[in-house]
Amino acid sequence: MKNNPDDYVSKVVGAASQVDPAEWNALLALQAHPTPFLRHEYLAALEASGSATAGTGWTPKFFTLTRGGELHAACALYLKDHSYGEYVFDWAWANAYQEHGLDYYPKGLVAVPFTPVPGTRLLARDAAARLALLETLLTWCRREKLSSLHLLFGAGEDVAACEEAGLMLRHTVQFHWHNGGSESVDAGGRYASFDTFLASLAHDKRKKIRQERRKVADAGVTFRSSTGAGIAAADWDFFYRCYERTYLEHGNAPYLTRDFFRRMAATLPQHWLLFVAERGDRPIAASLVALNEPPRQPRAPGAGRVAYGRYWGALERVDCLHFEACYYQPLQWCIAHGWDRFEGGAQGEHKMARALMPAKTTSAHWLAHPAFADAVERFLAREGRGIEHYLDRLERRSPFRHAG
Fold first, then answer.
1. How far is CA 83 from CA 57, 63, 86, 365, in A?
2. Phi–psi pair at 140, nearest 5 degrees
3. Residue 183's pLDDT is what?
4. CB contact at 8 A, 37 and 290
5. Residues 4-38 pLDDT 10s
6. Residue boundaries of the structural domains of the chain
7. CA proximity to 253, closest of 103, 56, 90
8. Predicted confidence (pLDDT) per residue in 90-99, tens digit
9. How far is CA 154 from CA 22, 33, 324, 390, in A?
10. How far apart are CA 219 and CA 325, in angstroms?
11. DSSP string, 337-357
12. Fold identical between 9-173+360-395 and 180-339?
């Protein structure tokens, strides 16, 4: 590709293996909102395991901008021939294209496959490099005659670049838990214990959580947790049995292969926390949580420690086991280990009853067809107003105790 006006040398390759891992990860470490899901090991494992490949509708393209031999900007883009595994839904847009005899697929997607976690998408040394990278993406999409370009769950700096480049913004709502409140906190501003967290909730919410936890305990279920290299191969195998079964029970094959998690255990173990539920001497369920930094790593100044609820499954049915495995055990762990935030993933108003509060996330969109772009822009304006009203209603339903 040609050099852009800012003298960057741009390049696009078709596999993570064609990008230097150390350079990629070093650039990621400079970002304000890095996540483990954009580490080279994670993206490479998605490809090598067969989880996100051309065969599954995720054709990878890695863009880099260099200057003087140094990497200044980079991102992962996927050519998509469907809209599965994205969590920002554009099926109606695709159907409208089809009804007018136009092709919506393939489209360009800047996102982490199957991972609705907000964070940096456009790796860059500075704002100028980030904007140059985005302009390079748009130029490439036009040249390839793609219908559209979509950047999902971007960080604030990504959104700012997209706005400057003229992309349309779309908002969705997730639910995140924050460790700390106006009372019952330790010297660091966090909850001192799970009980002090419960004390911050309204009486009915506190009572319900205790009832749900009691049901699991009364069923004879206990939990153990392990992190990093402490997660045994047998536990990874058991987790995958649970994860796969949950997908199959809903009529779908799982997005991620067993080999993907095998690669995570080998190349990125420090970013995983596993809970295993046991009844008697039998494991019956598991939930897997990702961590934005290793648990025992010294805390960087100003850095927030974030846990991400990702996957779960069960081989036996126990009332309220899902809530215990996916919310109460991770929240209890976050409190005990001083983690700042737990992100519960896409959608799910029921999470508010567990004190996960609404958080607005943002994606950005460019459509090549002017008439469709105009129609989508009007739709997004209406949808955006609805999202703001929805957030207002949710905030009024806070599960926390109110003064007075």
1. 9, 21, 6, 14
2. -65, -40
3. 54
4. yes
5. 556 899 999 999 999 999 999 999 999 999 999 99
6. 9-173+360-395, 180-339
7. 56
8. 999 999 999 9
9. 23, 9, 30, 21
10. 14
11. HT--EEEEEE--GGGGGGTPE
12. yes
Residues 347-399: tens digit of each pLDDT: 788 899 999 999 999 999 999 999 999 999 999 999 999 999 999 999 899 99
Peptide bond into 106 cis (omega under 30): yes
Instruction: Name which of 297, 147, 304 is nearest 228 in CA terms.
Output: 297
pLDDT confidence bin for 233, thresholds 50/70/90: very high
At 167, which amino acid appears?
A: L
Query: Is the overall model pTM greater than 0.90, yes or no?
Result: yes
Confidence category of residue 295, pLDDT binned at 50, 70, 90: confident
Mean pLDDT, the chain, integer: 94
Q: Which residues contact 252 (CB under 8 A, 6 or more apart)?
A: none
- CATH architecture, domain defined by 9-173+360-395: 3-Layer(aba) Sandwich (3.40)
As its CATH architecture, domain 180-339 has: 3-Layer(aba) Sandwich (3.40)
pLDDT in the model for residue 345: 81
Q: What are phi and psi of 166, to 5 degrees?
A: 90, 15
Taking Cα atoms as reference points, which of 149, 155, 54, 145 lies closest to residue 93? 149
Residue 280's Cβ-side half-sphere holds a number of Cα atoms within 13 Å equal to: 2
